[in-house]
């Protein structure tokens, strides 16, 4: 908090003498240098919230998986972290209403992104160099989930919506409610949802008996029936969630100010979790008895997240060199409790021999200020951002000691339109301090004892800059050229990880001496449109110095047994640095046809990315090439769409520990129809995801072999708005 008061004082001095001015509607909320989607020259994609609400999906990664250049690193249905142009983790910044979401998603692939999709207005996706203009550290891209919890314009009428959804693949059901109204001059919003999804069904052959049960399992008829039934569903893939959000705002000629509060609670099964052997008896032969003992257990995560936001904008009407000041403040707390429990007759008093739960906790505060100092000829903005974050892991899976992070960012961004071409450029300076420790384990220590702690205080300064040049060659053809240099400080996991990470099946080792990672990126995009035809082609190359990644240790026949015994059967992996290159392209061509009663849209898209290490070999868990075949037909009150995603085999594996991934064809269908009932509108959406019931695995996932994607999912959603 030490720097917040200084920033607030500066803000107050710069916003004295506030006078009347019309508030300009900002369509793209995460943009710094542009005000509306129609004005943006950057490669930004906007996904409509209504489309998100009618697709029958749960995770952020899956929501974006049909967008060219974006993949999902899934861990079951609920946990799906986005991968943008081969980059993931802290290289992809997830925002909610323009503010960075500071959860524990980066600590493990089984953790969800804490950006709820309830009542979403739109999702903004920025790829390539332009991401610098939106948030720090996002060398891969930026994803901003936008809702209307803090209204920036007055509501003109009361709006109430109630909705429900059902899914076949998981016997799932969900209910939601939202309310918007202007009450005595204040804009009030409320949204709530409640959902329950059971273990999801798998296509035939997605799981094999040897993956699920011990070879020595009993052969009686009852056990065979149990095995056959269990293979139809992915155990511990269930999700239960309750979400509420409240907001209030005041709008005037001077601008707007508002606050919101959200609470997100849920229980999510963990479909893959490696058991640490510890110092088991060498003559441990009671595998069948142990299996019987744990057969009634399940692995789960209990999630609890709260966010408190204050956001506003003040106009100075030209009485200061600052035209407008936008500000945001967020206080957030996120906890992820992971443990074992018996499915039936669960006794909270576990025996001492049972695995204890693990608590992943993040508490953060963040203040952001954007000063509009532009003129008639150019948009100019100065950005100040201050954030404090505490992360800790307590319990059985305490692979990282508590870490404190302080970030201070100063940025300057300019956008200018010269008629046939436009120029955006800017720089961002970040002062980052990470304080943590690493426990050095001693072989003589008992299993439950910690070794000696070595403390580190990393002070890292990074400077990043980006330039976007957009040229209209004709009324049909435009070209965007983006150049950038991103400096990214190592995140807390890369620095201070030291212990068993059961979600990845590895004993992971960080390195407190890692250097800053630098990404030099070039991106060129061609856009063509004439009559009913359109086409887009984007090529990018990202040369990364000191690229940080998790490297599995090389297998040594003489060392394998010793290493596995030392780390409880887990694979040893270390965060290392090597120069690397990521190169790829995205291509889409389509046409729009006006028919007698409606409009038919046809398109073909393809994306390709390849990540290589300069010393030789491939970056682990890269995405394979994909082809998209899309068709959509719409009339006045209904729309039918079909998307066939053709995913190629992934055989550019990093090493012997990364298995090849077989390709698949995924067909998703959706029909949306609107009914007008008096003053109310009823929207009915029917969907069939993975309609061909294909066995599918994402090569970007740590657990792709053990956690396939769901089978055929037929569902129905309804929403009544009045």
Notable features of this structure?
31 strands, Maltoporin, Chain A, 22-stranded antiparallel barrel, 8% helix, 722 residues, mainly beta, disordered N terminus, 51% strand
Share of β-strand residues: over 45%
Uncertain stretches = 1-41, 210-219, 279-296, 343-353, 443-449, 559-563
Report the principal-axis shape. Answer: globular
The CATH architecture name reads Beta Barrel
Q: Can you give the mean pLDDT?
A: 82
Kindly provide the radius of gyration, computed on alpha-carbon positions and rounded to a whole number of angstroms: 26 Å
Our measurement of the CA-to-CA distance between the termini, rounded to an integer number of angstroms, reads 43 Å
The CATH superfamily turns out to be TonB-dependent receptor, beta-barrel domain
Helix count, per DSSP?
8
Count of beta strands? 31
Helix/strand class: mainly beta
* Main sheet attributes: strand count, strand direction, barrel closure: 22 strands, antiparallel, barrel
Summarize the structure.
The protein has 722 residues and is mainly β. 8% of the residues lie in helices and 51% in strands.
Explain the overall architecture.
- The structure is a single chain.
- The chain is mostly beta strands.
- It has one domain: TonB-dependent receptor, beta-barrel domain (Maltoporin, Chain A).
- The chain is built from eight helices and 31 strands.
- It has a 22-stranded antiparallel barrel. The chain has a five-stranded mixed beta sheet with strand order 1-6-7-4-5. A two-stranded antiparallel ribbon has the order 2-3.
- The longest helix has 11 residues.
- The chain is globular and about 65 Å long.
């Amino acid at each position: 908090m030490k720097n917040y008061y200084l920033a607030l004082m500066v803000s107050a001095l710069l916003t004295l003498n506030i006078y009347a001015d019309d508030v300009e509607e900002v369509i793209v909320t995460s943009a710094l240098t542009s005000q509306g989607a129609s004005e943006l020259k950057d490669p930004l994609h906007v996904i409509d919230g209504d489309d998100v609400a009618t697709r029958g999906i749960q995770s952020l990664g899956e929501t974006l998986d049909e967008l060219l250049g974006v993949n999902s690193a899934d861990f079951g249905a609920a946990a799906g972290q986005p991968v943008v142009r081969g980059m993931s983790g802290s290289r992809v910044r997830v925002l909610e209403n323009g503010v960075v979401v500071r959860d524990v998603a980066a600590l493990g692939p089984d953790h969800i992104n804490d950006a709820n999709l309830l009542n979403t207005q739109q999702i903004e996706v920025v790829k390539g160099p332009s991401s610098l203009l939106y948030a720090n550290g996002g060398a891969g891209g930026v994803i901003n989930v936008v809702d209307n919890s803090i209204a920036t314009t007055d509501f003109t009428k009361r709006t109430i919506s109630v909705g429900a959804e059902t899914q076949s693949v998981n016997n799932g059901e969900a209910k939601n409610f939202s309310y918007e109204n202007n009450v005595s001059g204040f804009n009030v919003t409320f949204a709530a949802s409640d959902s329950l999804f059971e273990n999801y069904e798998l296509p035939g052959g997605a799981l094999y008996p040897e993956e699920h049960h011990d070879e020595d399992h009993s052969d009686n008829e009852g056990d065979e029936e149990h095995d056959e039934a269990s293979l139809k569903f992915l155990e511990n893939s269930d999700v239960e969630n309750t979400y509420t959000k409240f907001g209030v705002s005041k709008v005037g000629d001077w601008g707007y100010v508002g606050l919101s509060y959200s609470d997100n609670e849920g229980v999510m099964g963990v479909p893959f979790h490696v058991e640490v052997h510890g110092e088991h008896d060498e003559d441990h032969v009671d595998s069948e008895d142990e299996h019987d003992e744990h057969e009634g257990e399940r692995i789960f995560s209990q999630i609890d997240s709260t966010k408190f936001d204050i956001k506003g904008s003040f106009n100075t009407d030209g009485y200061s060199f600052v035209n407008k000041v936008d500000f945001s403040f967020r206080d957030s707390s996120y906890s992820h409790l992971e443990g074992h429990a018996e499915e039936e007759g669960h006794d909270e008093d576990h025996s001492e021999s049972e695995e204890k739960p693990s608590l992943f906790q993040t508490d953060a505060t963040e203040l952001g200020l954007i000063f509009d100092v532009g003129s008639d000829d150019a948009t100019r903005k100065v950005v100040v951002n201050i954030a404090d974050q505490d992360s800790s892991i307590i319990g059985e899976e305490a692979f990282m000691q508590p870490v404190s992070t302080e970030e201070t960012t100063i940025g300057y961004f300019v956008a200018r339109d010269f008629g046939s071409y436009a120029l955006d450029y800017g720089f961002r300076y970040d002062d980052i301090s990470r304080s943590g420790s690493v426990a050095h384990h001693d072989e003589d220590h008992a299993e439950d004892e910690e070794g000696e702690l070595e403390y580190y205080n990393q002070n890292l300064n990074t400077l990043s800059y980006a330039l976007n040049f957009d040229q209209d060659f004709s009324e049909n053809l435009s070209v965007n050229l983006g150049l950038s240099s991103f400096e990214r400080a190592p995140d807390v996991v890369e620095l201070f990880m030291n212990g068993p990470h059961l979600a990845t099946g590895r004993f992971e080792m960080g390195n407190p001496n890692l250097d800053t990672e630098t990404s030099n990126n070039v991106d060129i995009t061609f856009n063509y449109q004439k009559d009913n035809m359109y086409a887009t082609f984007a090529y990018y190359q990202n040369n990364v110095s000191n690229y940080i990644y998790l490297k599995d240790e090389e297998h040594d026949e003489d060392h394998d047994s010793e290493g596995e015994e030392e780390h409880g059967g887990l694979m040893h992996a270390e965060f290392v640095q090597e120069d690397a290159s990521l190169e790829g392209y995205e291509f889409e061509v389509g046409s729009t046809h006006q028919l007698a009663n409606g409009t038919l849209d046809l398109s073909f898209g393809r994306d390709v990315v390849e990540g290589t290490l300069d010393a030789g070999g491939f970056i682990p868990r890269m995405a394979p090439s994909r082809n998209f075949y899309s068709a959509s037909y719409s009339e006045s009150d209904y729309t039918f769409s079909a998307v066939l995603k053709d995913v190629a085999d992934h055989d550019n594996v990093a090493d012997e520990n990364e298995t090849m991934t077989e390709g698949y064809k995924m067909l998703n269908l959706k029909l949306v129809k609107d009914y007008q009932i008096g003053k109310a509108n009823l929207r009915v959406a029917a969907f069939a995801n993975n309609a061909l019931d294909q066995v599918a695995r994402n090569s970007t996932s740590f657990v792709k072999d053990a956690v396939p994607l769901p089978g055929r999912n037929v569902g129905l959603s309804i929403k009544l708005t009045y």
